[in-house]
Specification:
Layout lengths: L2 H5 L3 H7 L4 E7 L2 E6 L11 E4 L4 E4 L5
Length: 64
């Protein structure tokens, strides 16, 4: 798969496919964001934010 092909896949679709838990939606500074519990660690506070319009994510675990 080429990089541009991978970038065309919505991050939210991938997270749904791997079973990540959606915690909430919110209006971020750059538009609508979906907030998930991180799929690669057991976190009690959701920390993975996905900007739907830009199809980018950030994950800032608590205590980091």
């Amino acid at each position: 798969m080429r990089t541009q092909d991978a970038r065309a896949i919505p991050i939210t679709d991938y997270l749904k496919k791997i079973g990540a838990k959606l915690a909430r939606t919110q209006n971020g500074t750059n538009g609508l964001e979906y907030v998930y519990h991180s799929p690669n660690r057991d976190d009690k506070t959701p920390s993975l934010c996905v900007n739907v319009a830009k199809n980018i994510w950030s994950d800032v675990p608590q205590g980091a």
